[in-house]
Amino acid sequence: MSDTDPHFNLRLPEELKVKLMEAARDNNRSATAEIVARLEETFANEDIVEAKAARDALMVELGAVLQAGLSAAEDLNEVKNALQEAQKVLNAKQAAPLPPEENKPR
Predict the structure, then answer these.
(1) What is the pTM (predicted TM-score) of this model?
(2) Which of 24, 30, 66, 79 could form a disulfide with 34 if both were Cys (CB 3.0 to 4.6 A apart)?
């Protein structure tokens, strides 16, 4: 931070000022640097929260897509099973001897 940065007057409750000064001392920073660091962290956390919300929305969407895919796979499996049954019936009919025809032309 430089002395050319804009100044900003701030009123704080006494207890908050004491906490701020203690935190600044513990972190080897000035009170101004402590305030700036905490504000920057707050805004960074907002970005993280927004990113997590976007990720969660995408996960819900992905879940819906996967569920639709599973449903389609189940439908295809049912169609496959029906086709296999139809093939068995067709094979059985083709393998069966033809019934004698009563009215054969002579």
Answers:
(1) 0.46
(2) 24
